[in-house]
Amino acid sequence: MFDLPAPDTSPVRGCPFIDAAAEFPDPHHAIHRYAREQKLLMAQLVTELTAELGAAEPAVLAEQLVTLADGAASRAMVLDQPDYGRHARAAAETLLDRALTPMS
Predict the structure, then answer these.
(1) What's the CATH number where 63 sits?
(2) 3-34: per-residue pLDDT in tens?
(3) C-alpha span between 22 and 63 (Å, rounded)
(4) Can you tell me the distance from the alpha carbon of 104 to that of 97, in angstroms, rounded to the nearest whole number?
(5) Helix pair angle (16-23, 30-53), 10° resolution
(6) How much is the pTM?
(7) Which residue among 21, 52, 70, 104 is least packed, with the fewest CB closer than 10 Å?
């Protein structure tokens, strides 16, 4: 979710679904609806993965992780910094460590 794009990718484009939703802001427009469906699908997939890892609240953790990914994609695009995901990865690692460490 936080890996770098291909080294020769410039300018950074960010998330195509965020771009599409911004270009078609009406939530009833087919393109906006499709972008929403893709974002929900991503959250569902990450929820399944975090559940497999044993997270106590996989849906909550998944929303936190996809929010980090969306934020990193947006900032990478605006700042034209393809490696911006490293910041979100560090935060995600902290969230995962906390969510997957048994409480004493």
Answers:
(1) 1.10.357.10
(2) 766 666 678 888 899 999 999 999 999 999 99
(3) 20
(4) 14
(5) 150
(6) 0.88
(7) 104
